[in-house]
Amino acid sequence: MAEEAAPHVLLICYPGQGHINPMLRLAKRIAAKGLLVTCSTFSFVRNKLSAASGVSAGGDGVPVGRGRIRFDFLDDHFDGTELDLDDFMRHLETAGRLALADLLRRQAEAGRPVACVVGNPFLPWATDVAADAGITTAVLWVQSCAVFSIYYHFVHGLAEFPREDDLDARFALPGLPGLSLADVPSFLLPSHPYRILGDTIQDQFRNMGRASWVFVNSFAELERDVVAALPSVTPRPPELIPVGPLVELGGPDDDDAVAVRGDLIKAADDCVAWLDAQAPRSVVYASLGSIVMLSAEAVAEMAHGLASTGRPFLWVVRPDTQPLLPEGFLDAAAGGRGMVVPWSPQDRVLEHPAVACFLTHCGWNSTLETVAAGVPVVAFPQWGDQCTDAKFLVDELRMGVHLRAPLRREGVREAVDAVTTGPEADAMLANAKSWSAAARDAVAPGGSSDRHVQAFVNEVTGRACGGQAKASAVY
Description:
- Its EC number is 2.4.1.-.
- This protein has helices at 17-32, 46-53, 85-109, 125-132, 145-155, 195-207, 224-229, 271-276, 296-308, 329-335, 346-351, 364-373, 386-396, 409-420, 425-443, 448-464, and strands at residues 8-12, 36-40, 62-64, 67-71, 114-119, 136-141, 170-171, 179-180, 213-216, 240-242, 283-287, 313-316, 338-341, 355-360, 377-379, 400-402.
- By secondary structure, the protein is α/β, with parallel strands linked by helices.
- The strands form 3 sheets. Strands 3-4-2-1-5-6-9-10 form an 8-stranded mixed beta sheet. The protein has a 6-stranded parallel beta sheet with strand order 13-12-11-14-15-16, sandwiched between helices. A two-stranded antiparallel sheet has the order 7-8.
């Protein structure tokens, strides 16, 4: 396929770290199979994303496999004014609708018309803009199939969810284990302070029928029961097409694609070298992601708890949280067995042989990264889909333990001991390694997720050529 004739796919996502990572990783997998792929989000993160990826905005991009990947941004006219979440989401839609229509027009004028737009659950209006322009659309669901099912049943009133004050109630959905209120994505709870996020996701479900494909960042073997059960639900949901885990696998020199990263916070350069100096399976790696904020008391308990394990620890404490650390803790960590960094190259950290366990908030990206790496977990969810993800990591995949709230230093130490040296530690590690092998098989050439990506590429290519591609794989 001549490079200039390659079909052009545009991926657009919410400007948050947990959305940029899977978008970029799917973009690289599509590009590697011969397409031109543009990654897009809002312009107020342009400089950070361009610096992290090494790809200049608006240019021709860089080669990835047999295709190319490039960046272009929506001009959001954001002046830096501090907005609450509701106003911010409204601003994204108001500015984003016009900016996306303009971006699609500019691509056509530049001789690279967009053949397909892949949208994001936090930007449901992107599907409408692309469809109104006559462009085929897809959606990348960035959470689990299980969470998709819970939202779908809620939006369509297909199940009776327990009252928020009924903590002992249990309910069941097709293909899922018994669930309690604590296992439900917290965006659905009336008391959740960020209801706008739940409302936005529900809006995506209401217009998802306009999309030709619904991709999901998971793999068939991981969530086989729920994927098999969804077609029997009435009204029937769209078919979920697993294309994950959308994680980086292998070392940094495996191929050109790995160098194209999307870290909005600069990762510490010396993490891996520090891990190289630690004994195998000795380090507690702790990170609560890019958004979770703990109270000063909880940060102190976490700090003392990690120190009390007697193990070396690598702890990601974002710059906005570091002022909450106990006085003198950074100096003590640097002079002792701990390392505190503002951000880490998490995929490389989790794959390092020195890491014994991962204390995680259970965001879906982090969940898939630890599954792919085969690292047992201490699950400490805070809100959103993290609650459901923790349930599956501990109770279904059986590769970790819960760290219960309220956070106490003794609880941190006991949870780390349980997952590293406790009576079930060997079984948790074996389960984690088994799921790691399954994840890697899914994205390997000819694996379940790789076949789904190839089928999409074939179909987009066929449509762009005015016909129907003969897919080498089926969804």
